[in-house]
Design brief:
Layout: E1 3-13, E2 18-28, E3 34-46, E4 49-62, E5 65-68, E6 88-95, E7 102-107, E8 120-126, H1 131-141, E9 147-152, H2 157-166, E10 173-175, H3 187-200, E11 210-215, E12 218-220, H4 224-233, E13 238-240, H5 247-254, E14 258-263, E15 266-272, E16 289-291, H6 292-300, H7 304-313, H8 323-330, E17 337-339, E18 343-345, H9 349-352, E19 387-389, H10 398-406, E20 420-427, H11 434-448, E21 454-463, E22 466-476, E23 479-487, E24 490-493, E25 503-509, E26 512-513, E27 518-519, E28 533-538, E29 545-552, E30 558-566, E31 571-575, E32 586-594, E33 597-606, H12 623-626, H13 641-648, E34 649-656
Parallel strand pairs: 8-9, 8-11, 9-10, 13-17, 18-19
Antiparallel strand pairs: 1-2, 1-6, 3-4, 4-5, 6-7, 11-16, 12-19, 14-15, 20-21, 21-22, 22-23, 23-34, 24-33, 25-28, 26-27, 28-31, 29-30, 29-32, 32-33
The protein binds uridine-5'-diphosphate-xylopyranose (UDX).
Residues 125-127, 153, 182-184, 189, 215-217, 286, 318, 321, 365-368, 390 line the site of uridine-5'-diphosphate-xylopyranose.
Length: 691
């Protein structure tokens, strides 16, 4: 049964000779052991130095009795504190109805507040194209007295040029002069981390104390000032998240006994190996905050142990998740570990562990989910956690705004574009992307009514966390236009009685993201070489439905179909048929039958790319399908990309990017040229909109 007790203690500060007592009422549930955290505030000035104690934590309580100290020792205390200070802490667990109070004397470390704040190098390792989200992150973490070292994946030219341009005026930002294709979980991630660390020692004017890594999908949930205070308490410590106690399980899960080789942007599993003997293997997460001294040892003054373990980890999957921990635990720095990577990660393993990286690594890796409003971030403020991951403005931007609020970033007014997000999907200066080029060029032609245009950029527009439209920027003679197009979904639905009313959405495209259960091909651009993916979403219902999904080619021939039972729960199902490529260009149809009755039909376009299509036909198709097939479309239609694009996309408006015109893009709220203060690096530190 539950036990209510009091956790009482007294505190005597020896220097000021002041005493303080405290009490916390606790209910211990059903004899289940739990860690206890006691928080109270006590600050004082002694000899002109500020001290304070805010919390003491870490006893495991079972059934009202303290049973163990060790497990909870690493339990984090709130970080937004004054300094921890000296004296004695006497604690008792005063149980109601169970025995006598027991007292214990415990020394609390004295830590003076440092006059010089720690200087941090924020190591940003970036991937993707969401430059506006990265700029927003910079807005939250940028302080002129810290440093910012940025590595951008070799393949992300767009992000690199845009970000470099946007941060030119900010001091203390440097970009790695080299770049690697740092694939997910690859050995190259550790090589990149160590190379960046080495670079830092060549920047003679950078006097830093810590290096802390962040990615494009991280965001702050507390202010950088609170982080500075926290780090000041733990000077020279190293912050890493350890896996727990079961090392053999960790080794197995990480594949540390397997030999991996990274080659051609893939981690190949080539065999078994023995883990190094005589050392403690540790690990858990690849987000770190490491002290200068430890980093100096690793990259400037390594010993034999470091060198041999480095070789071992050269052939390890997810190397940064265990390398730093293992080096730290086995080096002279072993006592400096604080088991906290300062991050909270949004793990939903049933979705995040769907072996989605098999095309990159010969292993089933997991990945955290994107925060949405359903995930509660605010309560985490009690813990010494300063960053959260992952965030993705194409999925949910509201949580970023919320995190900004938690981090003390305030906007004097919510500007009109606050709920908009823009991300570039095509830029002419990059390498060719044939299908996007065909698609966006045809949209530009549609607007200009001319073939003599020069496609410059295509941008995806999101509003209030929904995909809205594509924006095509193109030049015609000397004028640059931006035109907005919205997808016209042509679909019909009926058959409510047979369970078809449970069908809520059909999305057609490619790039299925099993973790977020979305198609990353937002504009749904399908060409002859696209591996089609279709999501059909069903709400809860009273009875199961036998759903048949059918893909029909422009000539009216079924290319693929699948029947599955949809139980009474809600489902987001994906249909990814294994079709022979290239596909037949033209108007395709996607049909859904519920209990053999047609309930929905959506048509979509496969853009011609001048390739000879392969044969796709199913030998045996059920009668209820053949009786309901759409008519074949005329053969000529299938080859005209412009008319195909026109049938699917509706023109919504245009503006002029520059010049003497009263329809300027900077005045059109949907335009990628409209002011977007939340993602503007011009305002960082300038205090124009931020309070
Ligand atoms: C993270 C950890 O990286 C991984 O070790 C752990 O097992 C799960 O959590 P995830 O969040 O999926 O995985 O990684 P992601 O954010 O995609 O990438 C991690 C870092 O690698 C980022 O800094 C990212 O910018 C970089 N990266 C990733 C690249 O530079 N290029 C890529 O192609 C992929």
């Amino acid at each position: 049964s539950n036990v209510t007790g009091r956790f009482v203690g007294c505190f005597k500060d020896e220097r000021s000779d002041r005493e303080l007592s405290f009490m916390k009422k606790l209910t211990i549930k059903n004899s289940v052991s739990q860690c206890v955290q006691l928080c109270f505030k006590y600050g004082f000035i002694y000899a002109g130095v500020e001290f304070g104690i805010e919390c003491w934590c870490g006893h495991k309580i079972a059934n009202g009795r303290k049973i163990e100290d060790k497990i909870c020792q690493e339990m984090p205390c709130p970080g937004n504190s004054l300094q921890q200070c000296g004296g004695y802490l006497a604690l008792a667990i005063h149980e109601t109805g169970i025995g006598q109070p027991r007292f214990e004397k415990k020394t609390v470390l004295v830590r003076e507040k440092q006059s010089n704040k720690s200087r941090i190098v924020f190591l940003l390792t970036l991937n993707g194209r969401a430059v506006r989200q990265v700029k927003r992150l910079l807005g939250s973490i940028y302080r002129p007295h810290h440093y910012y070292y940025i590595h951008i994946d070799e393949r992300q030219n767009y992000l690199r040029t845009q970000l470099q341009q946007a941060t030119k005026h900010l001091k203390n930002i440097k970009y790695a002069q080299w770049s690697m294709s740092t694939i997910w979980g690859g050995a190259s991630l550790l090589t990149m981390h160590l190379k960046c660390m080495k670079d830092l020692f060549s920047f003679k004017t950078w006097t830093w104390d810590y290096i802390l890594n962040l990615s494009e999908s991280d965001f702050t949930i507390k202010s950088i000032e609170l982080l500075e205070n926290y780090l000041a308490v733990y000077s020279n410590s190293n912050f890493l998240r350890a896996h727990g106690k079961d090392t053999p399980k960790f080794v197995k899960k990480q594949g540390l006994e397997k030999l991996f080789v990274e080659c051609d942007r893939h981690m190949w599993r080539v065999g078994e190996r023995k883990i190094p003997q005589g050392i403690r293997i540790d690990g858990g997460s690849d987000w770190f905050c490491l002290s200068r001294k430890f980093v100096h040892y690793m990259v400037q003054n390594p010993d034999d142990m470091f060198i041999s373990l480095r070789k071992y980890w050269e052939y390890s999957l997810l190397p940064s998740e265990s390398f730093f921990h293992t080096i730290l635990s086995n080096s002279a720095f072993c006592t400096t570990l604080v088991n906290n990577n300062l991050h909270v990660t949004n793990w939903k393993r049933s979705r995040g562990c769907r072996c989605q990286y098999k095309h990159l690594v010969d292993w089933c890796g997991c990945s955290p989910n994107i925060f949405t409003e359903m995930d509660r971030i605010s309560p985490l403020r009690q813990h010494p956690i300063f960053f959260a991951r992952k965030f993705d403005s194409t999925i949910n931007q509201k949580t970023i705004a919320h995190s900004e609020e938690l981090s003390g970033v305030k906007w004097t007014s919510q500007h009109s574009s606050f709920d908009y997000f823009w991300v570039n999907d095509y830029s002419s200066f990059e390498g060719r992307n044939e299908i996007k080029e065909i698609f966006y060029t045809n949209l530009a032609k549609l607007h200009s009514r001319s073939n003599d245009i020069n496609l410059l950029n295509a941008t995806l527009l999101f509003y209030e966390d929904n995909f809205e439209a594509v924006l095509i920027e193109y030049a015609k003679k000397d004028v640059v236009f931006e035109a907005k197009f919205k997808r016209k979904w042509i679909w019909s639905q009926d058959g409510g009685k047979v369970g078809g009313d449970r069908l809520v959405r059909i999305t057609i495209g490619s790039d299925w993201d099993p973790k977020e259960e979305i198609l990353r091909n937002w504009a749904g651009i399908v060409g002859q070489t696209t591996k089609i993916a279709i999501i059909h979403s069903w709400r809860e219902g009273d009875t199961p439905v036998s759903a048949t999904v059918v893909l029909v080619q422009p000539n009216g021939v079924v290319a693929a179909f699948k029947t599955e039972t949809i139980d009474i729960k809600s489902h987001n199902l994906v249909f990814q048929p294994d079709l022979n490529l290239p596909l037949k260009p033209g108007k395709w149809s996607f049909l859904i039958f519920a209990n053999e009755k047609k309930v929905a039909r959506v048509s979509f376009v496969v853009l011609p790319m001048g390739l000879n299509p392969e044969f796709n036909e199913i030998s045996k198709v059920e009668e209820f399908i053949t009786n309901n097939l759409p008519e074949a479309s005329p053969a000529t239609e299938s080859l005209n990309a412009l008319s195909l694009v026109k049938s699917e996309w509706g023109f919504q408006g245009f503006c002029v990017v520059s010049g003497d015109n009263n329809n300027l893009c900077r005045n059109q709220i949907w335009s990628s040229h409209y002011p977007d203060p939340k993602s503007s690096t011009e305002l960082i530190g300038g205090g124009l909109l931020r309070e």
